[in-house]
Specification:
homotetramer, 474 residues, mainly alpha, Fumarase C, Chain A, domain 2, 2 domains, two-stranded antiparallel sheet, 4 strands
């Protein structure tokens, strides 16, 4: 939605590099890359002359094309490939007469546009994966640093049992690791498209018969497809997927999940930054977080904008899923309806992930306030652990009932739960040892369970993934 | 999504004026209009000096503002109003020192942004209404011209009973009239927003107390609100709707319905233009409808692109509905998530309606082919009318069974249904008069029912609405 | 989704009457009503014998039909009307031989099913309108009772400026009034459907010609349509809307908006009930709000379930909007895809509105805690009013800057803002009167602006609507 | 939506086993399985007595529980686990006193409900995978049988170039194979949930400390988690995913994609079955495909209902994606909003896949009609191949222009393209050999390109997957 330089209604986009990866320039580049990869694949398969490689090199720079004219002329055929081929042919002819004969051969607009879509998705997807990796680094550090920072765990908005901020951060980290792995997996498997008019590669087959009488036509065509995909770093599909839109849906879902995973972190920040909770805040730069009306305001503005981005993904994902219903060998609208929503999902993932990576480095964690909030309920938040300890002596049901009644009494009389419980246990004739053990249940550290183990596990998972991934790259 | 001049992935947008109505420039204009309307309303209510009217006039031209800078600076506060106020204040001060004291008074960013959203919606909505009116003119002419053009009615893809192209066009017209009325109704009732920080108009009330001690503060504030809304041509709300987002949802739904109503026409065109049906085609200009691979192709490219636009609205509508869940006195993300989807719904309605208005004038209707297709089933398509005629003599059940069996026999023996039926009736000893009456059932004209009455009704409804509406305008 | 008696996964549905209004029994009733209304309309127009009225009366009780069998047999034709007609015909014949000849005449399955859909929508819509009215009563009482109950207004999760709980409740009330008016308006205008096979009413026209040679066929058919609609209490459409699905979309949107309007109230309750805020709580009955693990838990369970209902509406609305793209004279899937989502939207509105009406009567409002929370920021929440007061003396910009700097100092030094401000004003040589006026800005009552006026306005709007509506009913 | 026995509005559900897999009974079974798996895992880890295994066995039959009561009581706590635990505890106590102490230990409602959701998803997912496998068998047979059945390929509704029905079926098969692999992959990796109140497993840790002083607590807890997951055949997660909802989204997406992949096949059937195309039809049983009004109608009713199912998935997927924004350690609504949409996505996949598997075995393919349709354009459909052949002699641009002009002339003069082309080539002085080669381009078989290779590839892919998968099962 944002033009280069940003849109008035997309504040997050302003500080993002998203447009370089998904804007019209990026798309034009990808379209040209697809066309030239095909020309080169024809050379590789002996269906075009060797000198065509030189021509490809000479015209490879998409920025020399007239984007505005191509955009304008796209109206006639309903997509930008038709005018692009004309512009590119003109350039090729200026390099060498007859060169245009070897451009856009055996293919159709959808091949080139779908392939370009996969290139743009791959390029922006890799960037999102990398940014999520950086975000993960910061979260891993936060998780380790705050391993012992006890805070209230909350369910349905109510203080539930204690947790640590380290565990909260490890939860965010785990989700980011999952979303990153999912996106990385999808991005690594996006297929090139090369089916020709209706998916049969009939023209390539005919050319193979006429130009490579020495070889089996099927083999020559397979070589073209493989070389084309390899040239672009895309997967080689079992067949054209012109009306099998799973790659689009898979990409859309993965970009959406990335945005949503960071959106959840941002949502939590907005909650924890609430004036009455105030456990976490977004460190603001000059001129940030202010209000036009209230001079004291310190709004968690980055977090809010990330949340907004994540609220926009579900509808866009729905549009892509709806395009799975693609009739004929190229559908009358379902295909065209995918272009902008997929681009928007990529854009949102890029801007939201980038903003989250920045936000994570600017989180102020107020351990003191966390501790103070833990005391707000005068011990009620320890009810589960108290029950657990008591159950060993009284049985589960009796323990639960005792703590439930004591909790109610504590709330009504505004006395600490541990005091009420202690009193009741005394009254019931229980020994000091039990009372002492129950007393211990009210120690936050006693309540952290597997928190540290989980932090360690998630940090390892983050690092390991990272390592594996770095290896995978050339 | 498309920048001025269009986006590579939005061919419809290229030939549309949508950007003038919903692009960043249009938004900036609306934001400035909102700010200045407030300043003028303050003057009207005696809360700002008279000379401020002149200042407003002097700085009313939004195009003199630095859009790029405002866009850039919007990041800090999370919306463009905060920097806009600074830029506008600077302009005001250059006109008259102290003037900025009377800008953005008693208001908050959301007031201005929401009001601007309503202005943009009103302006683009009125344009869509007008374009739908023009589309309706063409459809009304088509409906009247083709009143007697019989064609096959189809249900679940199967030829069902005859209809006329006039009735088909009247069906399109009726839907356009409905969508237009709905959008016109919504557009006429969109409210201004003026709640101040949390909806209480506390600052305005305070200013009324201090600057207009002569008057009841509540009345002064009410005057400000009314004058503000009136200045902008918007409705005056019962209270601020900062977290009651029905106006946004209503606008979004109405724009979506407009796009979808024309989308359905386009969808029907793609069906009727199928090579095997070929009853309707889109008259193509030079360079339109071609393919990069198949020289013979004449694609209904405008229809396809309109369908694509209409497939994108449901997801965007969903995002707006989700933002109804707005917590606090201004929510942390739900509000921000509305901006781009609403703009996109407006953009799609503008481009789709415009393209449909053009498409309707370029429809070639092949009455001969329609007649030929009517004969494809050798009379099966008249089965309902034959049953109706027979039921008068045989009873409904018996007539249905007879025609059902005859239909099966006709299909299997590849004989005309009327012949098979006639034979069976003879065999059963029915007289010639019945056979003759049944024979008449196979006349398409006999099958048109209320088609002409409906055409007349819809044309009147179209015209009447139109007249009423033109009156309503100043 | 919930069967009568409720579904395991729909706790809200258990205590709701929704199934009586939208379940299969309700639908069967509506389908029968539609069929019999048509038979009666035929009698009224002289196209069926008078005695048919008696037959209609005799078979009007849908509960005598075999719902399970009809459900089973619906598979063959793809909708339940086809078997229903057979079952109903059998009943009619058992009353009087030949009666079935006058059932399902001149109509098609879609007519009956669409009409039934509108009946179900009308009946459940009226119930939702009534329940929203009751909810409004409670909210109006809350708004009036808490007119002077000051509390913190919050934007982007941060304390912003003071408001009153009365104004908050008036905000909820206004949204409920709007959603109620919208739904009432839609419900009052839902059209009957009677187009016959492809919308031309060809069979009715033929019957009019043959059975009412005394009258103009068009007029007779118009009489049938009008009588049919009137019998059912539905609007009479300009033409059949078999592929113009605006009525479905309008109904779906209005039900969704109702759910979302109460969903927002519930969302606010979950926020205000947070342990750290604790300004509002849901009064829980025995066995409510508990946890399986934490004995102290008092979850706002009704509020949470209402929020969940409101999160499900956007996706369902999207599905209905997508069905606007309906090809042919009856589409191959778009129509069938509407049935369950529309029913689910009705069900959600019924259960959510009902639960909200109950929740509103069980809200505990803690005015003391609200007051305490107002003091949490040591005066920062009054920064806007302080600025307003100061601006009268210092000018707007200077006032804003002074309060902004003082706010920062107050936060850093943990001193009350009023003290810091006072000090700075003294240092700058301002007189006591200004300091005193600023001091007054920190009185919550001074900050309520139009809150009371708005409460009065919304209560009047609620009552007025109500009155008008009660009048409108017979 | 459909109760056991089906819903009136869900004709597809009637003949499906979906309810056995996703209905309330299935859910109750899964909830009990989860509770008992936990009890067994406690035994395995030495945290519960050995005799508890026997108790588990004794109470394992969920059908003895009072589903209606549990459903009713679910309202109080907001989910069915809270009453379930009580009912189950009662049963356990009746087997052995004290047994209930070892039920629902160290866990929370969400653990059990999420785990049950994963069980239901796994069980229904495996069924969908199997049904898709059967569908694939039929499609593979169709693809091979119709390898040489030439037909028109169509893009944007227009005849484009020839294809074979074998290739069309191979396209369907490929998409089914992909959707099946995706769903199988997801289903094999769905994780159990066991986090306790807020994800830290604090109670289990405490119990390990007190009951297994001999062992490291972390190790004991890890054993519990592993045993729990293993018992249920679910994956063991790195940590609880109570607010990391990727598993839900991944499952939802995969079910949706399965429905959409078969939905596309059905959509194509409705297109190819159009009266004017008539290349494929759905073989109808007695009482199927009829109309209540038109005796001749043979509607592709199964295909239509499958399309309808696939149009409902996008909105449901959107709802699940929206629930990724889950605040706190258990969110106030986002979690609860997932239950029904996920179940509906499973139900739709089960019914749509089952119906598609049936439909595929009932497809009548009319090769003769396909051939006749290929001739409709008098050779225009061969324009691409003619161009390809000519390009070898004339160059690409000149060939394209020549065929484009000839196509226009052919259409206008209603002469065969090959005749027009031949004439033009003669006039331009081209030799007979070229004319002959061009003439050959009009042979459909010459136009099939890689169709047969693709069929072979997809059949192998289908079979191979199948083999691998059967191996993978124990």
């Amino acid at each position: 939605m944002s033009a280069p330089g940003g849109s008035l209604l997309d504040p997050l986009g302003v500080t993002s590099d998203a447009e370089h990866l998904v804007g019209d320039d990026a798309w034009l580049r990808a379209l040209v890359d697809a066309e030239l990869a095909l020309a080169r694949a024809l050379v590789a398969a002996g269906l075009a002359p060797q000198w065509m490689s030189g021509v490809c090199e000479a015209i490879a720079d998409a920025s020399s094309l007239d984007l505005a004219a191509i955009t304008r002329e796209a109206r006639g055929g309903g997509n930008p490939v038709i005018p692009l081929v004309k512009h590119l042919a003109r350039e090729a002819e200026s390099v060498r007469s007859g060169a245009s004969d070897h451009l856009h051969v055996g293919t159709t607009s959808q091949d080139i546009l779908d392939t370009a879509a996969m290139l743009v998705a791959t390029r922006s997807g890799k960037e999102v994966v990398e940014v999520l990796g950086r975000l993960g680094d910061t979260l891993a550090a936060l998780a380790q640093e705050h391993r012992a920072t006890a805070m209230a765990g909350r369910t349905l908005g109510q203080q539930a049992t204690p947790t640590s901020f380290g565990l909260v951060a490890a939860g965010w980290l785990g989700a980011v690791t999952d979303a990153r792995a999912r996106l990385a997996g999808v991005v690594d498997s996006l297929p090139a498209q090369l089916g020709g008019a209706i998916g049969s590669q009939a023209v390539l087959t005919e050319l193979a018969r006429s130009r490579r009488p020495d070889a089996a036509a099927d083999e020559v065509v397979a070589t073209v497809t493989r070389a084309y995909a390899a040239e672009l770093g895309l997967a080689c599909p079992a067949q054209a997927w012109q009306t099998n839109r799973l790659p689009i849906v898979a990409a859309g879902d993965a970009f959406a999940a990335a945005t949503e995973a960071v959106g959840r972190i941002a949502l939590e920040v907005t909650v924890l930054a609430r004036t009455e909770i105030a456990e976490v805040s977004e460190r603001l730069g000059k001129g940030e977080g202010g209000s036009s009306a209230m001079p004291h305001k310190r709004n968690p503005v980055t977090a809010v904008l990330i949340v907004a981005a994540a609220r926009r993904t579900p509808g866009l994902v729905a549009t892509l899923h709806a395009s799975m219903l693609a009739e004929d060998q190229r559908p009358s609208g379902a295909w065209h309806a995918e272009w902008e929503p997929l681009r928007e999902l990529e854009r949102l993932a890029l801007t939201a992930a980038g903003a989250a990576a920045s936000l994570a480095t600017r989180l102020d964690v107020d351990a003191e306030r966390m501790r103070a909030n833990l005391e707000l309920t005068d011990g009620l938040i320890f009810s589960e652990m108290a029950t657990t300890v008591l159950a060993e002596a009284l049985g589960k049901r009796a323990a639960f009932d005792l703590v439930e009644q004591s909790s109610r009494e504590a709330a009504e009389t505004r006395r600490p739960l541990r005091v009420v419980l202690s009193g009741r246990l005394s009254a019931d004739g229980h020994d000091d040892m039990l009372r002492e053990r129950v007393w211990d249940a009210f120690d936050p550290a006693r309540n952290l369970g597997q928190a540290n183990a989980i932090v360690a596990r998630e940090v390892a998972r983050h690092t390991g993934d990272d390592a594996a991934e770095r290896q995978a790259k050339p």
